[in-house]
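Researcher: I've got a protein sequence and the SMILES for adenosine-5'-triphosphate. Could you write out the 3D structure of the bound complex as structure tokens? I'd like something to compare against our soaking experiments later this week.
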Amino acid sequence: METTKLRMQGIQKEFAGVKALDGVNFELQPGEVHALLGINGAGKSTLIKILSGVYQKDAGSIQLDGKSIEINSTQDAINNGIATVYQDPQMIPSFTGYENIYLGAETEKKGLFPRINKRNLREKAEALLERFPVNIDLDRTVSELSAVEKEIIAVLRALSKEMTILILDEPTSILTETETEVLFRLIHVLKERKVAIIYITHRLEEIFQIADRLTILREGKNVATLSTNDDETNNHLAVAELMLGKKLDKIYPEKSTSIGDEKLSVDNFSLAGSFNNVAFKVHGGEILGIFGLVGSGVEELGKTLFSVIPKTSGTVRMNGAELSLSSANEAISNGIFLVPGDRRDEGQINDEPIYFNVSLSNLKRVSRATGLIDHKREKHCVQELVDQVQLAARDINQEVSLLSGGNQQKVVISKGLFTESQVYIFAEPTVGVDVGAKTGIYHLIRNLAEQGKAIIIISSDCEEVFGMCDQAMVLYKGHVTLQKSVHECRLEEMLLCGVTGGKTSE
Ligand SMILES: Nc1ncnc2c1ncn2[C@@H]1O[C@H](COP(=O)(O)OP(=O)(O)OP(=O)(O)O)[C@@H](O)[C@H]1O
Ligand SMILES: [Mg+2]
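Model: Sure. Here is the predicted complex with adenosine-5'-triphosphate in place.
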């Protein structure tokens, strides 16, 4: 019998009074894909950060191939063959893709005047990329890359090292289905080479596709370790309820029954190279869902509506009056707000407290007549809001960077809600959010609609659009391929229009 690759036992970790891990056990066999599951804040990232040397455990033991080891630094982890793709990978934006792949490794070249051999790195990166069936320009700087491309660079960086354990912390949260398949193919190759993989995700359907076993954590403790071949556990609902520790509520709220006056109307709206001739109307009380995969133009459509990107042509009317917007600030003062999808570089200021991040979006709301900020009111208002989104934080003075990924997303949502706009555009509102909190966010969005706001949800998750929205629009390669009331629409039809433009493959 093969020896167990990894055995973590009784792992404890506390952060300033927060017990992130309370005696967690975790095992990994060679060639196994082991999913690590739990709601936001359950302790998943903390556990893998202990394994990758980012954090030091307070107590517990780690055995690798039957031998006890201590991991005191990220270098220790790498030396032990443990490679990691983090949930929020750190990169140097002004460096190229290939430089970021070999970040830290390039200084190995010794000598009187150590110099980075860029050509060498470039060739190594190119060879690595060939093993990965995706196309990406390694010479572009990371600041020019899309979120997906950045993720690929982070995966390549992990693969550039000799490893027997690969940790993937929510690798697919921003990937499309096709890109996820690419990643899965790669995981299969690694499995055959006996690499053991820890896979963290909130997309439960993926687990049954890719994982052999799953371990569920709740509040820093083990809940269960199950085999995905077991019929009884081979079921999303059972897993979701184990994660939550309670029965799951209905995921999507009821749809709207009464629709108000027209709020936003958009005609002939185009951005050269991204989307063409888009037209729609959204009424107060109504949610319009725009579904499209990465590259379909939906991301740019959201940003153009918010005037972060200038449109090529088209008109936008608010309550019947034409708007001419040339910046996001003008959009905000005209009652349009975009809650961005990529919280890593658009949504938040990491090293500032929660309340600051939230109130920043609408300082007027918490300012005195003199223009000075009324801090008491500020904190009170923010507290009310974070209670509504069920933010799990010590308190609102906590730095955003210390929150778990899903809770950071809730800060971004709170920030949007703080603005009191007429039209809200939510871009990928539930990326990285657990099933329980997802439902909470959906209800918040529906509440906003019920208060008479007009809502647009932009999402690469077809089910989300189908479940949440009253009207649906689908974009494929910049063209509208479907536009109708969700009541008259089937999920399969919507998916097909987004993935193939509406053509069935013959
Ligand atoms: N550096 C830190 N300082 C203080 N608290 C922390 C720190 N890192 C994590 N925590 C806290 O530890 C708990 C576990 O967080 P962790 O990031 O491991 O959750 P997670 O399961 O990865 O959640 P998510 O699904 O949202 O990514 C949370 O309460 C979090 O706020
Ligand atoms: Mg996490």
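Model: The mean pLDDT is 87. The pocket of adenosine-5'-triphosphate (ligand 1) is lined by residues 15-16, 18, 20, 38, 40-46, 87, 392, 402-407, 434 (CB under 6 Å).
Researcher: Great, I'll pass this along to the crystallography team.
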